[in-house]
Amino acid sequence: MKKFFRLFYKDLFLARRLFALLATSVVLFLAAFFFPWLGILPLLFFCAVVVLLLVDLLMLYRTKAGVFARRHAPERLSNSDENEIRLFVENRYPFAIHLGILDEIPHQFQRRDVWFKSNLASRQQKWINYNLRPVKRGEYDFGDIRVYVQTALSLVARRYTIPQAQVLPVYPSFLQMRKYELMAISNRLSEFGIKKIRRIGQSMEFEQIKTYVAGDDYRTINWKATARHGALMSNSFTDEKAQHVYCVIDKSRAMKMPFEGLSLLDYAINTSLVLSNVAMLKEDKAGLITMAEKVGAIVPADRKPGQIGKILEVLYKEKTRYLETNMELLYSTVRRVMRQRSLVVFFTNFESLSSMERQLPFLIRIARYHLLLVVFFENTELRTLSEQRATDVEGIYIKTIAEKFAYDKKLIVKELTRHGIQSILTSPQNLTVNTINRYLELKARQKI
Prior knowledge:
The chain has 4 domains: 2-61; 67-171, Sandwich (Immunoglobulin-like), CATH 2.60.40.10; 174-198 and 240-444, von Willebrand factor, type A domain (Rossmann fold, 3-Layer(aba) Sandwich), CATH 3.40.50.410; 205-238, no CATH class. It is 39% helix and 27% strand. α6 runs antiparallel to α7 and α10 (380-387) packs across α11 (393-418). The protein contains 12 helices and 21 strands. The protein has helices at residues 2-11, 16-34, 41-61, 174-185, 223-229, 264-281, 307-317, 327-337, 353-369, 380-387, 393-418, 431-444, and strands spanning 12-14, 67-72, 77-78, 83-91, 97-103, 115-120, 125-132, 138-142, 145-150, 156-162, 166-171, 205-211, 233-238, 244-250, 258-259, 262-263, 285-291, 295-302, 342-347, 371-377, 422-426. With 448 residues, the protein is an alpha/beta fold. The chain has a 6-stranded mixed β-sheet, sandwiched between helices. A 5-stranded antiparallel β-sheet has the order 1-10-9-5-6. The longest helix is centred in the C-terminal third of the chain and has 26 residues, at 393-418.
């Protein structure tokens, strides 16, 4: 008996229709004092409400488990992407019901709108889909599914709490990686803004001897093979392979700045994962180094099948630190880890010319032995401020400061170029496309 009443106390909710009927009953009782001709009509109305309430309760509670629900989610979520979550609901009552479904999503999303209304006929099943976009890596705790059931009378609602607690990890954007992977395999990267670069010169990586056709470079004609076959034969070359491509990620406080809910570090991590995968599809070797005031993780360049999985696991655990990058340590690490000339893609951020000049001597040293590509971020908020029209003295001051900082970014690019260092100044949302564009350009021009 105690269990029965506890069930009522915890899982029974009164609906608006019941309150409306009770309010109507009260009005009728009050009106009976002034209009005696109403007689027992208010009492009959109240009794009818009570009977309907009892019938509604009996319909809801005579079936022990009238509703079944289950959550279908991927084994892991992709950071900064829309991840599909599916809810399966089944009506086990012998009559049609109205449902209100509440899914307890992780607190990191700060959403209170994961609430769905639906109608189900007897024994009917239904799927409900919705998307979640995480902006931080780590573990996300999902709670239970709560289903509120009403009959056609809709006087009360019965709540079902279905245990569905689970913990899902949020990894760097592997969905974005797969998207670019499919495009790279089918040679459709241009659909995402990846430019086709005209090849300048040719590779010295010999592939085969083939029959000369009109349009081939006459300088590739193999005269000895031509003499043997009695027909023009030419040498065919292919892209140089097995080049080392290292992504070096700065984890210092400069990468903590958020943009559309995602930190610059997470943008760099997502792009590093995509770039490593594209490099391996191009038959290069991909590696990774993370750095702040001390060395983070090191993944030596390789092209084995499990290399991307290893890089993904390392990137999942990386977090922003709150000190400046130790550039001297970075230089010594690069010299120790990279035994041959490699493409070093350094993801960092400079907010002023002076901050870049402090790191410039070490960048120049790295560029002596490797092809260095420095990737840093454009402050889109400052660009917006500099483009706004100033209407007062304060607006003029803000606009001038914003233009000064934006100009410093352009000076940084010129200074790096003057010392023979490749650079990319990009907005965070265009980081992946611009980085892959530059990698393909450098590869097409045999820079690596």
